[in-house]
Amino acid sequence: MDKTSTKRRSPDDIAQVVADITGVTPRYVNMVRDGDRSNELVEMIVVEYHLGKNNLIKYLETLVPLLSNTSRHGRKKN
Fold it and tell me: Is 62 helix (H, G, I), strand (E, B) or coil?
């Protein structure tokens, strides 16, 4: 018989930030994100963190033109 074990993932930056805000461990935050545990406060903060991060990225993209877009669509011609 083979022994099956799940590899515990290391806490990422989102889990660490949410854990610092809520006072729970990053492992517990990952368990809530995976659906193993239920905690509405942690779920709400994770969603708000994602929305805030996405809004920040969109705002920065408007300020700074991305060079990777020009390589996908060819060079800009003057």
Answer: helix
Domains of the chain: which residue ranges? 13-65
Yes or no: say if 34 and 3 are a contact pair by the CB < 8 Å rule: no
Cβ atoms of 37 and 26 within 8 Å: the answer is: no
10 Å CB burial of residue 40 (0-12, 13-18, 19+) is: exposed
DSSP per residue, 6-54: PPPPPP-HHHHHHHHHHTS-HHHHHHHHHTSS--HHHHHHHHHHHHHHH
Structure tokens at 51: 């929305």
pLDDT in tens, 26-64: 999 999 999 999 999 999 999 999 899 888 888 888 887
